[in-house]
Design goal:
Radius of gyration: 27 Å
Mean pLDDT: 91
Shape: globular
Low-confidence stretches: 300-304
Structural class: alpha/beta
CATH topology of the largest domain: Rossmann fold
Number of strands: 14
Largest sheet: 6 strands, parallel
CATH class of the largest domain: Alpha Beta
Strand content: 5-15%
Distance between the termini: 45 Å
Number of helices: 20
Strand order of the largest sheet: 2-1-5-7-8-9
CATH architecture of the largest domain: 3-Layer(aba) Sandwich
Length: about 450
């Protein structure tokens, strides 16, 4: 379910909740007909929500089952009122409220927000500047990622369009392609759009259609992200002569119109900021902060969601808090321990020995440090298939860790929660490392030979 759809549904649940108060008042005051009409409205609202959930999530949702219970209660109260039975208004209100709270909690926790992300490459040879980000989005079970190659034109000397090119058939076979004529941007309003064409109408040689200019795309998404298709020679922010030759790359239309610009390094970020402050003739602290927030020196960029996930906004399970909190209510340092499929397959039993050593070290320090172990979600499927015996030993280690309950075991789909919650990263090399480095928190790589 998309973010906007979930917000709209939560608003409808809130309206139903508000109606309960009026139903209680009407029953108390003898306004039976009004109470019955409101009960009908509440029941219809529950049916509407249930139908919508089944349309977006499929059948079998626990929230729909709870909605059915709620609708049954509204129907029964309605029938009792219609038959002039004596009803305690407070008890009826409490029953309706209890049933709706269960619906609300299930809807919040069991219905995942799906993110829709669109990637708009135009030249197939430049796809590598977006591919790693697309892979991260594509592997996220709560994200719908669309690769939509767009056409581009050669330009005549007078700026008019000449020959059109479309290279959608030149992308790797593992990349599913959506034709740009089949995606309705105005209707779908994707949560994020990634582009690598920065020029809009300023390219003298080629051009994408004006609809796909960065200035126009901003109208159709909450987050327009520009990733350059090129890699510039690295230099320091004080090397003015070298910077002079790359200024034009820093001041393209996409840099100004995008909500986020991902560049290859922290030094390059500082160069962009320096050039942009000069280009706009604004050296104020406000301008510096604006560009600093907008330009991201991430190297290999990942989904922007990592940057948006804030520790204070997290919903932390109670079983995690039991491990995280000290007796005085303060928090222990939280270490995000990440283990990968590749490391396990490469080192086999030696990696299991390393993991046992890591657990022993952190178990001994559990009064001050909380270990948040998050194994790669594909470990089971991969290792169980390729190394059955290794899987049995690994699974035994997992069960031992979980049964002892001194550390957190995170097998959820939300890696961003683990990144935001933790104070430092320790573990194998993987795409998570690059995401974690965006936070500026410490990263330490695991060495299987050190035990």
């Amino acid at each position: 379910m998309r973010k906007a759809q979930k917000q709209q549904t939560e608003e409808l649940i809130k309206q139903i909740e508000e109606a309960h108060e009026q139903i209680k008042n009407d029953i108390t005051n003898g306004n039976v007909q009004y109470a019955m009409e409101l009960l009908e409205d509440c029941q219809n609202g529950g049916i509407t929500i249930g139908t919508f959930i089944e349309e977006t999530e499929g059948e079998g949702s626990p929230t729909v089952a709870l909605l059915e219970d709620y609708c049954e209660v509204t129907y029964q109260i309605h029938q009792d009122l219609a038959e002039n039975k004596e009803i305690n208004a407070n008890k009826a209100y409490k029953l309706l409220r209890q049933k709706l709270i269960k619906v609300e909690n299930s809807f919040r926790n069991d219905i995942a927000v799906r993110t829709e992300v669109v990637f708009l490459p135009y030249k197939a040879s430049m796809w590598d500047s977006l591919e790693s980000v697309w892979k991260a989005a594509d592997e996220d079970p709560n994200c719908d990622a669309y690769v939509i190659p767009i056409s581009y034109y050669d330009k005549n000397p007078d700026g008019s369009f000449r020959k059109m090119h479309y290279e959608g058939e030149q992308y790797p076979g593992y990349v599913p392609i959506t034709n740009y004529k089949e995606y309705d941007f105005e209707q779908r309003k994707p949560d994020a759009i990634y582009i690598h064409n920065p020029y809009d109408d300023l390219n003298l040689v080629t051009s994408v259609p004006p609809f796909f200019f960065s200035e126009n795309l901003k109208k159709y998404t909450e987050k327009l992200v520009y990733i350059p298709y090129f890699i510039l020679s690295e230099c320091k922010p004080d090397e003015d002569k070298r910077i002079e030759g790359m200024k034009h790359f820093c001041t393209t239309p996409a840099v100004f119109h995008a909500d986020k610009v991902i560049v290859q390094s922290e030094d390059m970020k500082q160069i962009y900021i320096k050039v942009l402050m000069e280009a706009t003739n604004d050296h104020s602290e406000a301008a510096k902060k604006y560009w600093n927030d907008k330009i991201l020196g991430l190297g290999s960029p990942k989904l922007d969601k990592v940057l948006d996930t804030k520790k204070e906004d997290l919903e932390i399970p109670q079983e995690w808090l039991r491990i995280i909190e000290k007796p005085d209510g303060s928090w222990k340092k939280i270490i995000f321990y990440n283990t990968s499929v590749g490391a396990l397959l490469q080192h086999n039993e030696k990696m299991l020995e390393k993991m046992r050593y890591v657990f022993a070290v952190f178990k001994e320090s559990q009064d001050n440090v909380a270990l948040l172990w998050r194994p790669h979600p594909l470990i089971k499927a991969t290792v169980e298939s390729m190394r059955p015996q290794l899987w049995l030993e690994y699974d035994r280690l997992v069960r031992e860790y979980r049964d002892e309950e001194w550390g957190i075991y995170d097998d959820s789909s939300d890696v961003d929660r683990a990144i935001a919650l933790s104070d430092a990263y320790y573990g194998d090399g993987s795409s998570v490392v690059q995401m974690y480095r965006q936070t500026g928190k410490p990263v330490m790589m695991q060495n299987v030979d050190v035990v």
